[in-house]
Design a protein that fits this description.
The structure is a single chain. The chain is α+β, with helices and mostly antiparallel strands. Helix content is about 30%, strand content about 30%. It has three domains: about 60 residues; about 55 residues; about 230 residues, Beta Barrel (Thrombin, subunit H). It is elongated, with a radius of gyration of 30 Å. Keywords: Disulfide bond, Hydrolase, Membrane, Protease, Serine protease, Signal, Transmembrane, Transmembrane helix, Zymogen.
C-alpha cells in the first residue's frame, strides 16, 4: 500500500509540473491602440507644421498629457485652442530659436558642449561639461549675450562621451555596442545601431572572443549624424519581429515608428545598464563630442553607460531612436542623447522589419487626432506590450517554463518526496525479506 501511495505521489507531482508550466505561459498583450499621449504629440507637432515656425516655437506634452503649443500671436493661439490643444504665448519664434542654434554652430567648436531647443522655456539651453575650460566657457557666455535672451547657459557635471566601451569588446573590435532595431530594404536584413560604433567595413561578433561573426557595417554616418547599418550574414540569427529585450527573458514588441516629443516619457534598453526610462527634454540637440559634432539629436533624462551605444529608444511600442552618448551614469543620473530613428531610416532607405507599411515612419502623424485628447499623463505611459523573448516556438517556451523553479517548484517537491518514500518502502521491504530468510535458515539448522 505504501508503494502504491509513493507511485501515486510521483504521478501527481508530474501532473502538477506540467500544469504549472502550461498555466504560466507569458501573457502577450495585443498591440495597443494609439494612446492619448502619442495622439497629443502628433497634434502638437502637426499644429507647429501647419502654422509655421514664424508663428510657433515648438510643442510639448504637459504633465496632464495634453499638447501645448508655443505661439507668438493671438490668432495662432485661437487656432491652437480650436484644434483641442493648449496655447502658450512666448517671446521667441521657432525661427528665432533656430537662428540662435545656427549662430552657436557657426562659432568655433568647443568639445564638451551641447545645446538643444527647449520649447517649454522658449530657450536654447547651452550646457558645458567639466572638461570645458574657464576660457572657453567665457567665450560661450559672451556669444550667448550677443545672441540675446533666447539662450540660457548651464554647467553640467561629468563629461560628454559616446556610450562605447573599448575595454570589453562584445560585438565589434572597436568596442561594445548594443543592437538598436532590425531593419530591411525588402531583400536583405540589417541591424541599425550607432554610427560611432564603427566605420563601414567593421566586423561584428556575437561573442567577446570574436568567433561568431554576425555581420558587417556597410554604411555609417558619424560625425554629423550617429547611425550605421550592419548587414547580417546569411546564417546569422536575427529578430524579424523587432522585440526589444528588457531583461529577465522579456521584451517589448515594436509596433510602429514615430518622432519624440518634449515631455514624453521614454524607455531605452542597452547591453550594459539594461532597461531604463526618463523624459524627453529637448529636440534638435547638438553635442560636441571629443570625436566629432552630432546634430539633430533627442535630449533626454534617461541614463546610459558605456556599452549602451546604439541601443533602442521607444515608448508605448513606438520606435523613436538609437543611443548616441551623454554624461553621467545610472547611479548618479545624467543626460543622454539619441539619434532620431525616422531620419536614419529615411537616409538609409530601409524600414523596420515585421511592421506593415502603415506602421512605418510618421513624424507628424496624428495631427488630425485632436478629438482623442483624453489625457494620460506622461508618467503613466508604459513601454509597450511586454512578452517573452526566450526560445522560439511553443516547444521552446514549454522547456523554458519547465526550467523555471518558480513555476514547477511545488510539483518537483511532491515528486522528490514521493521518490524518497518509494526508496524508503523498498529498503524496508528488503530488510523484512532478509529477516524472514534468516529466521527460516536458522530454524532449518536447529
Amino acid at each position: 500500500m505504501a508503494r502504491l501511495t509513493a507511485i501515486g505521489g510521483v504521478l501527481c507531482g508530474g501532473l502538477m509540473v506540467t500544469q504549472a508550466a502550461m498555466a504560466t505561459e507569458p501573457a502577450t498583450s495585443p498591440p495597443a491602440a494609439r494612446s492619448s499621449v502619442l495622439a497629443a504629440s502628433g497634434t502638437g507637432s502637426g499644429l507647429v507644421e501647419e502654422l509655421g515656425s514664424s508663428r510657433t516655437a515648438g510643442s510639448w506634452i504637459a504633465d496632464d498629457g495634453r499638447p501645448v503649443v508655443a505661439v507668438t500671436d493671438e490668432e495662432a493661439a485661437a487656432e491652437v485652442k480650436q484644434a483641442g490643444a493648449r496655447a502658450k504665448m512666448v517671446e521667441y519664434s521657432g525661427e528665432d530659436l533656430r537662428s540662435a542654434t545656427e549662430a552657436l554652430r557657426s562659432a568655433p567648436r568647443v568639445s564638451g558642449t551641447s545645446w538643444a531647443i527647449d520649447p517649454a522655456s522658449n530657450e536654447v539651453v547651452v550646457r558645458a561639461d567639466s572638461t570645458v575650460s574657464a576660457k572657453d566657457w567665457k567665450k560661450l557666455t559672451d556669444l550667448a549675450e550677443e545672441i540675446g535672451g533666447s539662450v540660457r547657459m548651464e554647467r553640467t557635471e561629468g563629461a560628454y562621451t559616446m556610450r562605447l566601451n573599448g575595454a570589453q569588446p562584445i560585438f565589434g573590435t572597436g568596442g561594445r555596442c548594443s543592437i538598436g532595431f532590425n531593419v530591411t530594404d525588402g531583400e536583405n536584413e540589417f541591424m541599425l545601431t550607432a554610427g560611432h560604433c564603427g566605420p563601414a567595413g567593421s566586423v561584428w561578433f556575437a561573442d567577446n572572443q570574436g568567433q561568431q561573426e554576425i555581420g558587417r557595417t556597410i554604411e555609417s554616418n558619424f560625425p554629423g549624424g550617429d547611425f550605421s547599418l550592419v548587414q547580417y550574414l546569411q546564417d546569422a540569427p536575427s529578430n524579424s519581429s523587432n522585440v526589444v529585450s528588457v531583461g529577465d527573458g522579456r521584451g517589448v514588441r515594436i509596433t510602429s515608428v514615430g518622432a519624440a516629443a518634449v515631455g514624453q516619457r521614454v524607455f531605452r534598453s542597452g547591453s550594459t545598464s539594461g532597461f531604463r526610462n526618463g523624459e524627453v527634454t529637448g529636440l534638435d540637440a547638438t553635442v560636441n563630442y571629443p570625436e566629432g559634432t552630432v546634430s539633430g539629436l533627442i535630449e533626454t533624462t534617461v541614463c546610459a553607460e558605456p556599452g549602451d551605444s546604439g541601443g533602442p529608444l521607444f515608448s508605448e511600442g513606438v520606435a523613436l531612436g538609437v543611443t548616441s552618448g551623454g554624461n553621467g551614469d545610472c547611479s548618479q543620473g545624467g543626460t543622454t542623447f539619441f539619434q532620431p530613428l525616422t531620419e536614419a531610416l529615411e537616409e538609409l532607405d530601409v524600414q523596420l522589419t515585421g511592421l506593415p507599411q502603415a506602421a512605418q515612419p510618421t513624424a507628424s502623424a496624428g495631427a488630425a487626432d485632436a478629438g482623442s485628447q483624453g489625457a494620460a499623463a506622461p508618467g503613466t505611459v508604459q513601454p509597450g506590450a511586454v512578452e517573452s523573448v526566450e526560445g522560439s516556438g511553443a516547444f521552446s517556451d514549454i522547456l523554458d517554463r519547465l526550467a523555471d523553479p518558480r513555476n514547477v517548484g511545488p510539483g518537483l517537491l511532491v515528486i522528490a518526496g514521493s521518490m524518497v518514500a518509494l526508496a524508503a518502502t523498498r529498503f524496508i521491504r528488503t530488510e523484512q525479506d532478509r529477516a524472514a530468510y534468516r529466521r527460516q535458515y536458522s530454524q532449518s539448522w536447529s
